[in-house]
Design brief:
4-stranded antiparallel beta sheet, 53% strand
């Protein structure tokens, strides 16, 4: 059992979920990260799961191309994907059909590219197909660029069809004309009275974003928090079993220097650039009363890391008051640190926190020792309404010389996060996922520092950590 799936010798790329017969069929693009062993099979792969923890078996289905979608109509499965040409750059949408999800027949005569009247010829990929009941036809949305006067012309394009084989060009589904990249891996669904458009941007923000609307035709509103996770959660698409909806993305590795930006002479990985592909990360989506979407841990993931440990608490600085599964400290003008249990290969720390103070911040330390120095830190900064990730190298002089910015990653805190809230921290190998109040997620990687302990701290705050629990993976 892998908590966050990745295949042997390869990495998980874009995931295309399809649900049927009590399980999710997760089609995905496999990145072999230049592995050339005899078991390498390029193209789309199919992976099955019922619980987002146990995966398999995995098979290659013989589709060589980029991201798309899978639907079923009149007993036939339809798979739409994209292919690429270079010099000059051209992209095309392709179609294949199947009766069993394993053997696919390609319809090469149906391959088509942009019209070059509405859309530029360079970007035409990641088709997502769904049935539009209002218009009684099929809609295909995809990553594209609309013709325009500036280079800010990224959009979600639109084509329509009556038969899934012939497509008519239409004006874009969503075109704010604010981005210099095509909006990748678009996804669309309805939940209650709201329609949702999900897409990923690889310029400027480099995240998976979403928009919401009361109408299929917009206008598309930007919610207070319009992302599901950090930059380390990309190309995310959603799937539902009819009751729950999940969002599937990948947490990238930092090992290959694919973009040739890695710092010279650096002997670690924490400061390297992000690769394409990594481990599969799944969040459960839920909708609040305003139609905004938030994420929480998948219950089966929490259950997989639920063997409770006896809590060890060792005050390092500050006047801590300790009780069973709780610790409090009043440090309005300083910093107080508390050392907890050592980490396992897979560990989970869970607690509730109450805090007060105008400039208060509290947080979690990971892979630290009694010096509470070099390690990884999740800092909840109430004055700035954000959760921050700071890596181990930042705690050294070299980090001060290297970073021209204050934090490596950050997530906004919801305005509805109260004075008392819940935190779940999941560490599995190099992967870190943090959830606050079952609303906000922060994911990243931790490569350079191993072992050590969990820790808690409070700065310029009165803090009460309650219901502290530490778990390891079930055998």
């Amino acid at each position: 059992m892998q908590l966050f799936y990745t295949p042997q010798h390869a990495r998980v790329g874009d995931v295309i979920p399809y649900y049927e017969d009590g399980k999710f069929h997760l089609f995905y693009l496999k990145n072999w990260n230049p592995y050339f062993g005899s078991d390498r099979k390029d193209g789309w792969h199919l992976l099955n799961t019922k619980d987002m923890v146990h995966y398999g078996p995995e098979t290659a289905i013989g589709i060589l191309g980029g991201t798309g979608s899978v639907i079923k109509a009149d007993g036939i499965y339809h798979l739409y994907y994209c292919v690429f040409e270079q010099n000059p750059q051209r992209q095309y949408v392709c179609h294949a059909t199947s009766r069993d999800l394993d053997s696919w027949t390609k319809h090469e005569e149906e391959t088509f590219g942009p019209d070059e009247t509405i859309y530029l010829p360079t970007d035409w990929r990641d088709p997502y197909v769904f049935w539009n009941e209002e218009e009684n036809c099929w809609w295909m949305i995809f990553a594209a660029q609309k013709k325009g006067k500036t280079t800010r012309r990224g959009c979600v394009g639109l084509c329509k069809s009556k038969d899934l084989h012939h497509w008519d060009y239409c004006e874009p589904f969503y075109a704010p004309m604010n981005a210099q990249c095509a909006f990748e891996c678009p996804d669309f669904f309805r939940m209650g009275d709201w329609y949702y458009l999900v897409f990923s941007s690889y310029a400027d923000r480099y995240q998976t974003l979403y928009r919401k609307s009361r109408s299929l035709n917009g206008p598309w509103e930007t919610p207070e928090i319009d992302t599901f996770d950090t930059r380390a959660f990309y190309a995310a698409k959603t799937g539902t079993d009819g009751v729950h909806r999940y969002v599937y993305g990948w947490n990238p590795t930092r090992e290959n220097n694919e973009h040739h930006f890695d710092p010279l002479g650096y002997d670690g990985k924490d400061c390297n650039t992000w690769d394409w592909g990594g481990n599969l990360i799944v969040h459960e989506l839920w909708q609040d009363e305003d139609g905004d979407l938030f994420v929480k841990p998948v219950p089966s993931v929490l259950e997989a890391v639920s063997e409770e440990e006896i809590i060890s608490m060792k005050p390092l600085t500050g006047e801590w008051k300790l009780a069973e599964n709780s610790a409090s400290v009043n440090t309005p003008y300083g910093y107080s640190a508390l050392l907890l249990n050592p980490l396992n290969e897979t560990s989970r720390l869970s607690f509730d926190i109450e805090t007060t103070g105008e400039a208060a911040s509290v947080g979690v330390a990971i892979h630290v020792d009694e010096s509470f120095a070099v390690g990884y830190y999740i800092n909840i900064d109430f004055a700035r309404s954000r959760m921050e990730f700071k890596s181990g190298v930042r705690m050294t002089e070299r980090g001060g010389q290297m970073f021209p910015y204050e934090v490596e990653l950050e997530r906004p805190l919801s305005s509805k996060t109260g004075e008392c809230f819940h935190v779940d921290v999941i560490v599995s190998g190099t992967i870190l996922e943090v959830y606050v109040d079952n609303r906000i997620a922060l994911g990243t990687r931790m490569f350079d520092i191993k072992g050590g302990n969990f820790g808690l701290y409070a700065s310029d705050a009165e803090a009460n950590f309650m219901n502290i629990q530490i778990f390891k993976k079930k055998i």
